[in-house]
Amino acid sequence: MTIGLNYGYFGGPSEEFEASDTYGLQQIAWAGEKIGLKWRVADWKYTRGQPKDEWYKYHNKYYRRWVRPRQPDISNLYFSLYASGILYNIADLRTDETFRRPIVGLGSGIAFFNGLELNLSYAVPIVEGFDLTGAERRGFANIGFDIPLFDYIRAAREKRAK
Fold it and tell me: What's the CA gap between 153 and 155, in Å, rounded?
């Protein structure tokens, strides 16, 4: 579960919504959550953090680290499947007031050393009678800059305690 800033771009004016919803919408920006599944493809934080001259297991194989450990700038690479739409509908955190639909998305991204994530995905708004047939016409490209929700809450509590 992450929370962050997102920017979506419809390839052309979206005509999949009724006129009062997002008819003709080309771009949207919002702050929102992403709830879903992540599959880490590469975990450099784990592999580069292993002690020198020690054996470790990674993806069911054993490796040996020949140099001293260090923290990489990019921690991991992942694929994700997510749903979003609760937060920006409750708090009105979007650039276009007519965009009221929850979305589902599929994408990939990288996580940095400090927990921030940059991801690219293809998202589809959920409309009445939703099915995946023709989803490529209803969807949009999305770029997101997120932080894990629990890291955000912990940092906010620490700041409030000071």
Answer: 6
